[in-house]
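Appendix B, example 12.
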Amino acid sequence: MPNKQNIGFIGLGAMGAGMATNLLRAGFAVTGFDLKQPALARLVELRFFAGLTLDEAADILGVSRRKAARDWSVARLWLQRELGGG
């Protein structure tokens, strides 16, 4: 049985909701966060989970570094609010 460590799950769309449900069924505590803007969610995935730099993420997303930086600011504020830190 897994410990009750809380797993933060970003993205609760068609795939994410199913994965979060499976984690819950397996006994994990899950906190779900759902960015309503897919581009911001993808940027968070690339930065947090893939460990990419802002420039690398911008290249993959096909946007300018400036747009990626603006989006990153919005995503960070959203995450801070959702996690109770701002």
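The beta strands are 6-10, 29-33. The chain has two domains: 1-34, 37-86.
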